[in-house]
UniProtKB/TrEMBL annotation:
Superkingdom assignment: Eukaryota
SUPFAM superfamilies cross-referenced by the UniProt entry: F-box domain
Species for this entry: Panicum virgatum (Blackwell switchgrass)
InterPro entries from the UniProt entry: AT5G49610-like_b-prop (IPR056594), F-box-like_dom_sf (IPR036047), F-box_dom (IPR001810)
Protein name, as recorded: F-box domain-containing protein
Pfam families linked: Beta-prop_AT5G49610-like, F-box-like
Annotated F-box domain residues: 1-51
Amino acid sequence: MAAALMDELMEAILLRISSDDLAGLVRAALVCKRWCRIISNPGFRHRFRELHPRPAMLGFLRNQGTVSSFVPTSSFRPPRCDGTAKFKTLIKCYTHATRRNFPTIDARHGRVLLHSVSWKLGENPLKNPFVVWDPIAGERRELPLLPWSSNPYSWNAAVLCASTGACNHLDCRHGPFLVVLVGTDQEGMFACVYSSEAAAWSERTSAHYPGHEIILMPSALVGNALYFMFWYSESILKYDLGTHEMTVIPVPVECSFRRVVLMTRDDGELGLAYMENLRLYLWSMVECPDDEENVEWAERKVIELRTLLPDEALSADSLDVAGFADGASVIFVRTDGGLFTIDLESYRVTRVCGEGWYYGNFPYVGFCTPALEAASTIVGPATGTSNI
């Protein structure tokens, strides 16, 4: 009875190891056989995730030209990636027996959406395949080509769990997923959805051409809708996953012609962030119940960056928003001194990269607990063996 009580007390302590320091679980499992047995228990992993419902930002993917790289912000490293750079891992894979670069298009629910790049100038980009990558398992799935060919004026795409409304996304990497493609061409605005369950693309749906182009920057998922930004931050494209309808939403006049990052707020509203005069402005959208096509915007918070960022980073000419980690409530800020993250709950600032310039920045957020799997394979220090 005393031993059982001691195990319960130790588990309660070990469960409180921070999800940002999962390597601590491995170190704890190496202390003694008792701790190793507790951590390797199948129920421990489930209780650990329940106690730490907020996913961790494991790293981020950045596009530089046509090359995408994974920059870790934790102890996690993707398996079976090419490159051995100290701070980033280049992402390449084989497609149609041809080795190509794969810029990142989106990252969500433990998956990353990549798009094959051809070196032929003027080639229709949508004739090249998309690839869905699971960085934790190191698995890639090439999607079939689109059933129609249209050279787009602009386009963007998003990957997400197929059970958005009924899933807590704690561990849905192995479940079905969707890829939503939106764009503009000579026929107007279009959308098409790939379903992993059907292993096929849907029919193309169309809408009126809005007169401006979609930008290849991270989208936002709020409820049952995806949101994509247009160039010059003039408006936002809303794609309803249930009705498959597309709607153009105006943004606040304060955001026009600024660099704007879309956000998913903790209260379930669509948010956006932009920078002005060393201040970070956070807004949220409020739908009008009497008229679903009209929306209102409200300024929710202004964060003074002079008191958060180091002095060498405070240059108004270079300071700008650079991304948002959905689920982790972390925003990226680009400066001349590098790339920083700001935790919007604790206001903790972290320098995550020495290079501030980039094209495309996609945070990878997930519940990766490789330390739990590693701990379950540890025999224990008493035997003098370990396979980690």
